[in-house]
Amino acid sequence: MTLTCLGIEGTAHSFGAALVTNDGTVHSNLWDMLQPDSGGIHPREASQHHAQVGPELISNAITQAGISPEDIDLVAFSQGPGLGPCLRTTATIARALALTLSVPLVGVNHCIAHIEIGRMESNFIDPVTVYVSGGNSQIIAYAGKRYRTFGETLDIAIGNMLDTFGRYVGMPFPAGPRIEIEARQGSEYHTLPYSVKGMDFSYSGMLTAAQRLHDEGTPLPDLCYSIQETGFGMIAEVAERAIAHTGKKELLLTGGVARNERLSQMLAGLAKRHSSRYHRVSPSLAGDQGAMIAWTGILQYEHGNQTAIEESVVIPKWRTDEQEINWRT
Ligand code: AMP
Ligand code: MG
Fold it and tell me: Does the beta carbon of 32 sit less than 6 angstroms from any atom of ligand 1?
């Protein structure tokens, strides 16, 4: 029997809506990202953005999927982790829709959704996952019914570091793609703090040092090149150790920073050295979007997991390893 799920994402700057069926087909997947004029994301402004663009975006996603609202069997939403005001606006929209359509509601963990959409696309069974985005940087692997975080950033996420550095040198948000373009012209490596502690890593020292090198007149292409080599090298080191320790034979790259060619190249190389298969999620499924929420919602619902309205309160600090994963054996 076909199950059609509307997935709603809204943990940070992006609001997304998608329709996905339980055969894994993505029928529509739309999102809209708040572009701050200056400075970083303000949680309240982002939540206002979601309230403004949300209804029309959902309506467009339904139209684009070629269905009518009555065909929706299930509403899934990003329950956490994320920015409180954004999560609450998103949850309010999801609850209202589930009640209006008289269909079940499923709260989804945003980080787990990034893993599950990657598993769906790659057909991987049990990968080590590198999840890198504006708000998160984690190396994750499944063990004992949970997605365990084997390593993560101790301070800011890699995407946040790239965006903050980019803003400092006058690039518009998001800066990641522009840094990648600059880096291709760079050749001279300038030393930046390489900070891996056990299985964790950190980016704030590197950010400060990069800003100082910029102030001292280091050419931007060389600096962008050095940031990528150092920042991505740290992720690759931890991912390599995770593959070596767990003995898993699949490596998955997911999250918005997965769009970066150089990072993907490094991870593909290490996967090859360890005779592991490698997959990078396609660009439309890499960043924050509703398809990953819809698909994970379907997995949860098909395994008897739904969220009562009274239990649908948002979880801003929901950790990846807090949820029991009952849809995997
Ligand atoms: P997300 O938080 O998953 O929506 O991803 C957004 C983050 O991905 C932002 O920090 C972007 O700067 C970053 N990003 C997007 N494209 C690239 C790229 N080509 N290289 C590096 N970072 C990127
Ligand atoms: Mg994300």
Answer: no
Q: Confirm or reject: Cβ of 9 under 6 Å from ligand 1.
A: no
Nearest protein Cα to ligand 1, atom 22: 176
Q: Is 176 in the pocket of ligand 1 (CB under 6 A)?
A: yes
Distance, CA 194 to ligand 2 centroid (Å)? 24
**Per-residue model confidence as pLDDT tens digits over 152-184:** 999 999 999 999 999 999 999 899 999 999 999
> For residue 41, what pLDDT is reported?
78
- All structural domains of the chain: 4-114+287-322 (3.30.420.40), 124-285 (3.30.420.40)
Residue % of the chain over a pLDDT of 70 = 99
The CB of 162 under 6 Å from ligand 1? The reply is: yes
How far apart (Å, rounded) are the C-alpha atoms in residues 304 and 82?
25
Residue 30 has pLDDT above 80, yes or no: yes
Q: CA 59 to CA 56: how far, in whole Å?
A: 5
pLDDT-based confidence at residue 35 (cuts at 50, 70, 90): confident
Backbone angles phi, psi at 5, to 5 degrees: -115, 135
Query: Is the Cβ atom of 288 under 6 angstroms away from ligand 1?
Result: yes
**Distance between Cα 99 and ligand 1 center (Å):** 34
The answer to whether 266 and 102 are in contact (CB under 8 A) is no
Predicted TM-score (pTM) of this structure = 0.96
DSSP annotation of 174? P
Determine the distance from the C-alpha atom of residue 59 to the mean position of all C-alpha atoms in its chain, rounded to a whole number.
24
Atom of ligand 1 nearest to the CA of 135: 2
- Alpha-carbon span 84 to 91, nearest angstrom: 10
